[in-house]
Give the backbone structure.
Amino acid sequence: MSQTITGDVNEAGETGQSVAAAIRAALLESDPHAKVMATRRVARDWRLGRLAHVFDVAMPDEPGRPETPELLPPNRMPKRGKAGSERGRIALWHAIAHIEFVAIDLALDMAGRFGAGMDRQFVDDFLSVAADEAIHFALLDRHLRKSGSHYGALPAHNGLWDAASETRHDVAARLAVVPMVLEARGLDVTPATIERARAVGDPAGARILERILDDEIRHVRFGANHFAATAERLGKEPVNLWKTLVSRHFRGTVKPPFNDSARSAAGLPLGLYAGVA
Ligand SMILES: [Fe+2]
Ligand SMILES: [Fe+2]
């Protein structure tokens, strides 16, 4: 009698599908709704022990992208319109939705590309980040639809995946730049956006951003923890390593004003980022 019940379930309750194959499939989804669903499914299946801790396929260089939004270089992006105007308001929500859409792929790629060389906790953490980003995107797209727009209605800027391409060979560089610079930047700027949403009578939008800010503190913390562990494994001093990697791989500048309380809640010490610019 066969021991196999359904679809090659092994002793750990894992099915035959590797976590890498499931992540790759989610990355390659181009339809936003399908990517959200696939991402949430990977995170859930992993959490429930249904995916094998196996990295047998490579991650794509470029993830799937929908036909719209049209992706433009940052200097060709149209002006957002007057602050406070309906057009300007929608353009801002659209830009944030695009950041969250790319953040889904950044988190999936982190887990799928580097998971093999890291501990299980790394995959746990970044698949939970990917699921959060999927929810952030879905909330923002719904918010746009309530305003009569939707994700894809406006152009979006094409530079957000650059950080991933630039750091695709080095997990320490990826951690230094994506969670610890880009997502940390979100902690700095989001409180002002929340205030602005409230000021223009958009409490629902403000609540979405509050939730995002809370989640992003955790995302930065995951990045900082795994970066510290990686530095230790490499026998490198973490602050120096971070500064070296950021100056080598990040083209922008790390500059104030910083949200010191959110950064410290995320485990980023002042000594790490102050005085880098
Ligand atoms: Fe997010
Ligand atoms: Fe995030």
Notes: Residues 1-7 have pLDDT under 50 and may be disordered. The two ends are 67 Å apart (CA to CA).
